[in-house]
Amino acid sequence: AQKVTQAQTEISVVEKEDVTLDCVYETRDTTYYLFWYKQPPSGELVFLIRRNSFDEQNEISGRYSWNFQKSTSSFNFTITASQVVDSAVYFCALSEAGGYSTLTFGKGTMLLVSP
Amino acid sequence: GAGVSQTPSNKVTEKGKYVELRCDPISGHTALYWYRQSLGQGPEFLIYFQGTGAADDSGLPNDRFFAVRPEGSVSTLKIQRTERGDSAVYLCASSPQVREGNEQFFGPGTRLTVL
User: Pairing with B57, which of A59, A101, B5, B67 sits 20 to 30 Å away (CA)?
Assistant: First the structure.
């Protein structure tokens, strides 16, 4: 069975601080995919990134960066110089290969960025 | 182009009533997913359609829940004899093709409240 754990329920930072959201996953598959989604107050889930299990390169996209480490089964997400617009709930999710790409989500981390 | 749309955005019903929730996926997307998100939780998979057929309905909680996608586009999630525990946000997502690890594009959800 697959599982995603986001241990941080809520994080509060002040604008311009860096913040890291943790994600730990469990799966018995050797091929799998990891995702991050953002859910702003409007409620619609917004896709941020996908990584496959064979690509451990870290990725940077603007102020966002992701650190994938298979050795610790983690896929952490860092926002540099946070902004108020980053306030949202962030979900980490996992999908296993060979299935229908259904996503198993963590419980989410609520990020509050204050001015 | 237009994203995934869901109607109604909010539905309030009484215990025991029947409800239908509609999802209109992105045009051309063959894969369609339904998820349910309870307060403070991540979305949980309900059912997946590839074309007109339900390829995986393992997430449906019981036989009061049913979904159809008769023409391979719009889908309707049907809940009979609603219970208070059915209250949640029901999310629909679509994906352009069946390929493992595909990102899913989510709609804004229908918030169902059972009184």
Answer: B5
C-alpha distance from B16 to closest chain A C-alpha (Å): 27
d(C-alpha B95, C-alpha B26), whole Å: 8
Average pLDDT, chain A: 93
- The pLDDT tens digits of the residues spanning A11-52 come to 999 999 999 999 999 999 888 999 999 999 888 999 999 898
Q: Mutation target for B interface from A44, A55, A109: give the one with most B CBs within 10 A.
A: A44
Instruction: Tell me whether residues A47 and B103 touch, CB distance under 8 A.
Output: yes
What is the Cα gyration radius of chain B? 13
The minimum CA-CA distance between B82 and chain A, rounded to whole Å, is 23
Q: How far apart are CA B62 and CA B58, in angstroms?
A: 10
User: How far is B79 from A66, CA to CA, in rounded Å?
Assistant: 39
- Hey, which bits of B1-115 come out as E strands? 5-7, 10-13, 19-24, 31-37, 44-50, 53-56, 65-68, 75-79, 88-95, 105-106, 110-114
Q: CA–CA distance from A76 to each of A10, A58, A101, B13, B16 (Å)?
A: 15, 10, 21, 40, 43
